[in-house]
Hints:
Blueprint: H1 6-15, E1 22-24, E2 27-29, E3 36-40, E4 47-52, H2 56-72, H3 80-96, H4 98-109, H5 113-134, E5 141-142, E6 149-157, E7 160-164, H6 170-183, E8 187-191, H7 198-210, E9 217-219, H8 224-233, E10 239-243, H9 246-258, E11 263-267, E12 273-276, H10 283-295, E13 307-311, H11 312-326, H12 347-362, E14 366-369, E15 373-374, E16 382-383, E17 386-389, H13 396-399, E18 406-412, H14 415-423, E19 427-428, E20 430-434, H15 438-447, E21 452-455, E22 470-471, E23 488-496
Helix pairs in contact: 2-8, 3-5, 3-7, 4-5, 5-6, 10-11
Amino acid sequence: MTTLTRADWEQRARDLKIEGRAYINGEYTDAVSGETFECISPVDGRLLGKIASCDAADAQRAVDNARATFNSGAWSRLAPTKRKATMIRFAGLLKQHAEELALLETLDMGKPISDSLYIDVPGAAQALSWSGEAIDKIYDEVAATPHDQLGLVTREPVGVVGAIVPWNFPLMMACWKLGPALSTGNSVILKPSEKSPLTAIRLAALAVEAGIPKGVLNVLPGYGHTVGKALALHNDVDTLVFTGSTKIAKQLLIYSGESNMKRVWLEAGGKSPNIVFADAPDLQAAAEAAAGAIAFNQGEVCTAGSRLLVERSIKDKFLPLVIEALKTWKPGNPLDPATNVGALVDTQQMNTVLSYIESGHTDGAKLVAGGKRILQETGGTYVEPTIFDGVSNAMKIAQEEIFGPVLSVITFDSAEEAIQIANDTPYGLAAAVWTADISKAHLTAKALRAGSVWVNQYDGGDMTAPFGGFKQSGNGRDKSLHAFDKYTELKATWIKL
Ligand code: NAD
């Protein structure tokens, strides 16, 4: 744990100079329109600063610069070994500035400072260095040609990448895109969420400090319906990579069709089932994981284990363990290093979460933990981790992504029923299975329509494995070498010998 106390972080927060301008071609710059919007901290409602509200004019500037830099070859044609070294330096700078970035992240979106410092910043740095380290170890192919032909199968950077990211892991989601996008030689325009722009803005200058040429990484803060839409409709953006809601993901596919048919890669929402069979090897461990799966990051996690499917024969024994485990997840001031649940990102998101809790009551589910807004006197947006028992999978709280700390408990009687319920949502991002029976674990994992399946754990994984969704949770994958496919075009070159 950090040696800095809450008082230290609060002092640093008071001393902080917030940079809210866009970053284009290596320079901080106001929006062309001069418009700004207010950045309010969910920790206590304080105004953090004014942020450039970019729109289509800024998108045009950024795309022009990104295209020119790409065409210059300064980065796109640099030897992979050199790009690798630069990416590793970039990751090193994130670690060097870990406390500053962690503070920005926590103030901006409300997550606990210990998470920002020990999960988000190191995770973001790892995404940059892992991709950088890989780039000079990937070989192209030679096709099986006739004697008088040489067929080369090569990968080239796609060109200008628009990256639109959400607010729940602002820095980490950005770096899951930037790692492979930059390592493969593209120029990137990053559009952070209007709810959490601060770390992305800071990141841009660190990239240039690391030696990435100016114009390769540009950052445009602003709203989705203005600058996000402008990027998605832009005819000179080659690829759009997105993490966010399924609703906006679908919209981006339309924008692509209405413009230049840019490639669109989507990491969208989830409603992940966490299935606990009666023969789970360790019910206490399963209960603790179930609590963490809904409370970590205030439940604002795409893979949150928001549907807990429990075999009926152990329900009465298991649910009290989960309720007890959830008591260790207590909302508090995120600047306190001991806090493990912070504030929801803003008032709008808090009201959304509270309205889902209301809907759980209305639909007849039974509240067994939490259920209320708390710590109102702080001016922040805090909601107790909440559990509803007696949920049917048809209820709104079981079907829709809440993106807050609200757990639906659903009982089942057989493996077939568990699988049927687990797959019965529009989403397919992740799932977990708890059982001591190895065949049941494999068979259930195979039957689950989800991009990640965890057995006897929740939320495992690192950069080595792909991450993404089936169904309406998206397409393509972040992380691992598979992510490189999104940022490269495949070319066949035939040479007559
Ligand atoms: P969101 O879809 O509202 O916004 C995501 C981004 O899209 C933001 O930057 C926003 O400004 C932008 N945007 C909004 N409207 C746009 C438009 N018309 N054109 C272009 N851009 C637009 O999502 P959110 O509320 O920021 O994030 C929460 C969502 O993200 C949840 O659904 C969550 O599951 C998902 N998520 C998915 C993953 C994953 O890897 N699958 C990871 C984290 C979060």
